[in-house]
Design a protein that fits this description.
GO terms for molecular function: signal peptidase activity. It is a single-pass type II membrane protein. Residues 7-167 form the Peptidase S26 domain. InterPro entries: LexA/Signal_pep-like_sf (IPR036286), Pept_S26A_signal_pept_1 (IPR000223), Pept_S26A_signal_pept_1_CS (IPR019758), Pept_S26A_signal_pept_1_Lys-AS (IPR019757), Pept_S26A_signal_pept_1_Ser-AS (IPR019756), Peptidase_S26 (IPR019533). Its EC number is 3.4.21.89. The protein has 177 residues and is of the alpha+beta class. It has a single domain (29-171), classed as Umud Fragment, subunit A (Ribbon). 16% of the residues lie in helices and 28% in strands. It contains 2 helices and 11 strands, in the order H-E-E-E-E-E-E-E-E-E-H-E-E. It has helices at residues 2-25, 147-150, and strands at 27-31, 46-50, 64-67, 75-81, 87-90, 93-96, 99-100, 117-118, 133-137, 153-154, 158-167. The strands form 2 sheets. A 7-stranded antiparallel beta sheet has the order 1-2-11-3-4-9-10. A 4-stranded antiparallel beta sheet has the order 7-6-5-8, with no helix packed on it. A hairpin with a 7-residue loop joins strand 3 and strand 4. It is elongated. The termini are far apart.
């Protein structure tokens, strides 16, 4: 009996250690707060962010990331511009490096604040996104607080790339492009 209890305690201890290691270094779950990423994510959706994707190629245009905010809880937004890119928006069309960005996921209902912008409007000097910074926008542009409000997001602020929605179960998914 003592041996069996010891084995159970050891299994529980190993499980707890694995959970702590996974949450600390590999994956972490977040709850989407608000409608700024609608229709891709709805208020209350639960997602998993991959923390190690940065070490295997980094973040690219179109990736959905979770990042720490300086003004409150973490945000979930889409990467639109990466270091070295030029980005502007004219008449609700985003241009990255002079090419129109195809964005089937974007909600454009009515007029959005700041429909037109350039990087210089967002406080970026030199015309290109600086090293280790990213321009992020919400998919629901008319109501999203994003780089149009708070500027570029530093690489250090990014927690990870959203790779899984696990709640609600009827919206379970893995591809958010």
């Amino acid at each position: 009996m003592k041996k069996e209890v010891g084995e159970w305690l050891m299994a529980i201890l190993v499980s707890v250690i694995l959970i702590v290691l996974i949450r600390s270094f590999l994956f972490v779950s977040y709850s989407v707060d608000g409608l700024s990423m609608d229709p891709t994510f709805e208020d209350g959706d639960r997602v998993v962010a991959n923390k190690i994707v940065e070490y295997f190629g980094g973040y690219e245009t179109g990736d959905v990331v979770v990042f720490n905010s300086e003004v409150g809880p973490a945000y979930v937004k889409r990467v639109i511009g990466t270091p070295g890119d030029t980005v502007k928006m004219e008449d609700k069309q985003v241009y990255v490096n002079g090419e129109p960005l195809e964005e089937d996921y974007v909600v454009n209902t009515g007029d959005s604040y700041m429909d037109n912008f350039t990087l210089s409007d967002l406080g970026v000097e030199g015309g290109e996104i600086p090293q280790d910074q990213f321009l992020v926008l919400g998919d629901n542009r008319p109501i999203s607080r994003d780089s149009r409000d708070f500027g570029m997001v530093d690489r250090e602020q990014i927690i990870g790339e959203v790779q899984l929605r696990f709640w609600p179960l009827n919206r379970f998914g893995t591809n958010f492009d």
